[in-house]
TrEMBL record:
Superkingdom, natural source: Bacteria
Protein family per UniProt: Belongs to the LysR transcriptional regulatory family.
Keyword Endoplasmic reticulum: no
Name used for this protein in its record: Transcriptional regulator, LysR family
Annotated source species: Celeribacter neptunius
Keywords: DNA-binding, Transcription, Transcription regulation
Transmembrane regions listed in the UniProt entry: none
Any single Pfam family the record assigns to this protein: HTH_1
Gene Ontology MF term list: DNA-binding transcription factor activity; sequence-specific DNA binding
UniProt key word Zinc: no
Ranges where the HTH lysR-type domain occurs: 5-62
InterPro entries recorded: LysR-type_TF_proteobact-type (IPR058163), LysR_HTH_N (IPR000847), LysR_subst-bd (IPR005119), WH-like_DNA-bd_sf (IPR036388), WH_DNA-bd_sf (IPR036390)
Single Gene Ontology BP annotation: DNA-templated transcription
Length: 292
């Protein structure tokens, strides 16, 4: 008869999944390296599957095992919240939710949202991953992405939570019209950056400086280095910047709250997305730059 692994077995698997290494899991659990190897090998043997791909980068979750790992994480969350009752019509959230977004949203919007959610659910904690680059949700580097984009990649499933706008700013109206800051890297591939670049090339204007971060561009503009395109909630937050007449008209940009397609229906992640999306919707006036 097949011996069923108990919850303690899964703790070792999830620790390796979180840290990406046996040594990291050992530190987290307070055991030695050999114990982790033995417990992971044992559960893989019992289940008849290989949960991890071993590479020079460490232990990575095999893509086809994402659902199994998330199921184990739901068990972990349920064990942590076993004495709690869900509110009527609402599911309690527990465990660790990894949220990734742009550096600007991570700094200016998400901390307050996540703090509010965490205050409501004492068994819930977050990892906030700030990156303007694509974070690979297929490897469980994150559970939920908050992404400003006009269209989600095919491997993500989610909904539009709110809209945001861009505006044009400078330290003063006296900054010359031929002094501009450019957008590079991931933000430089956005629709707004592309339209701005087209217009400035048409006017034969060269950038005086550039950055791959809106927060860095804001700081450069505050030093008087040039005019800049910024999310309105970021530009409006600066007492050192004034809003300029639009150089070009830009449509508002949707902000999606999404998960990897293979995990989008996991109850815990679906509930997390729902609550983050609702909190973002409440902030839409600030994101659109129309809040008082």
């Amino acid at each position: 008869m097949l011996h069923r692994p108990n919850w303690d077995d899964y703790r070792f698997v999830l620790a390796v999944a979180r840290s990406g290494s046996v040594s990291g899991a050992a530190r987290e659990l307070g055991v030695n390296h050999a114990t982790v190897l033995r417990r992971v090998a044992a559960i893989e043997a019992r289940l008849g599957v290989e949960l991890f791909e071993k590479s020079v980068r460490g232990y990575e979750i095999a893509p086809e095992k994402l659902r199994l790992i998330e199921a184990a994480r739901e068990v972990e969350a349920a064990v942590g919240a076993v004495e709690r009752l869900a509110q009527v019509g609402d599911t309690a959230l527990a465990g660790v939710i990894r949220v990734t977004s742009t550096d600007t949203l991570c700094a200016y919007m998400l901390p307050k949202i996540l703090a509010h959610l965490s205050a409501r659910e004492r068994d819930l904690s977050f990892e906030l991953i700030s990156s303007n680059l694509h974070v690979d949700l297929a490897r469980l580097q994150a559970d939920v992405t908050v992404r400003p984009t006009y269209k989600l990649p095919d491997d993500l499933v989610g909904e539009v939570a709110a809209q945001m706008r861009f505006g044009f700013y400078a330290r003063s109206h006296e900054i010359p019209e031929d002094r501009w800051l450019g957008l590079t890297g991931a933000i430089g591939r956005s629709h707004a950056a592309h339209k701005l670049r087209e217009e400035l090339e048409r006017r034969k204007v060269r950038f005086t400086a550039a950055s791959d971060s809106f927060m860095s561009l804001k700081a450069l503009a505050e030093e008087g280095m040039g005019r800049v395109l910024l999310p309105t909630f970021l530009g409006n937050s600066s007492p050192d910047l004034v809003k300029l007449e639009p150089l070009i008209e830009l449509p508002s940009m949707p902000i999606f709250v999404a998960s990897h397609a293979d995990l989008a229906d996991a109850p815990r992640l679906r509930q997390a997305r729902k609550r983050i999306a609702a909190a973002l919707a409440a902030q839409e006036p600030h994101l659109l730059g129309v809040a008082a």
